Amino acid sequence: MQLDGKIALITGGGSGIGRETAVLFANHGAKIAIADLNPKGGQETVQIITQTGGQAIFVQTDVSQAAQVENMVNAVVGAYGRLDIAFNNAGIEGHTDRTVDVTETEFDQIMAVNVKGVWLCLKYQIPQMIAQGGGAIVNTASVAGLVGTHSMPVYGASKHAVIGLTKSAALEYARKGIRINAVCPSVIRTPMVERGFVEFPQFVEATKRINPMRRLGEPIEVAEAVLWLCSDAASFVNGTALTIDGGFTAQ
Ligand code: NAD
User: Disulfide engineering: 161 pairs with which of 67, 95, 115, 143, CB 3.0-4.6 Å?
Assistant: First the structure.
């Protein structure tokens, strides 16, 4: 699963799953571009990679803004000459609210980042990959994209939409040498989840109890799956939504 010389762009690479995947990609020979809204987190990931001899740049990007996403892809191609791998992973969770209590503002924010953001990334990455003859893209969905999630209705809707975008785009560009897949993690121990556990400490044990493996997932366990999907080892895997959930959705 080596990525020697490949150019990999990771959105949301300044934290959690994105950072872990960026570091794993770099350890497997890829040159990395981190895109994140948060410059501090993004620069930290770049530092982690360069300190261990890897190559990485940071492009500050709000994935919900078309001009910024276009600039992100141009910056990567400007710096490295091409774009082989994209991990469209930036996302927000929003607040925990039942369907009727969600505000319109919150609905729009979650959809803007989680759905429009992934669509904009595809919109600007795919033409570059077509021009250079192929590539591999992975979008971060969630188990919340496969089953209902109590009190996170808009987040769940956004992740169902990510799977829909992934499958449609995978069909459209299969003959252009581009594979497009999604990953569907269950609860993974990242800053996003730690924020929720601070608000609702009782959810830590409850989350473990409802998973067949009786634990949370670790970011590296998602990163390893993304590495495989982006590598030539997964050369016939296209349009899939791969669960990384300890069996949660098998119940
Ligand atoms: P995280 O909060 O640790 O990291 C998310 C990163 O995305 C942050 O660095 C943040 O600055 C960045 N980001 C947020 N909005 C952005 C925007 N508009 N433009 C660019 N960057 C932006 O979260 P994480 O747990 O690592 O989540 C990564 C992805 O995995 C998300 O899409 C999330 O929905 C998904 N996911 C997480 C879990 C989990 O349990 N942690 C489970 C399933 C899916």
Answer: 115
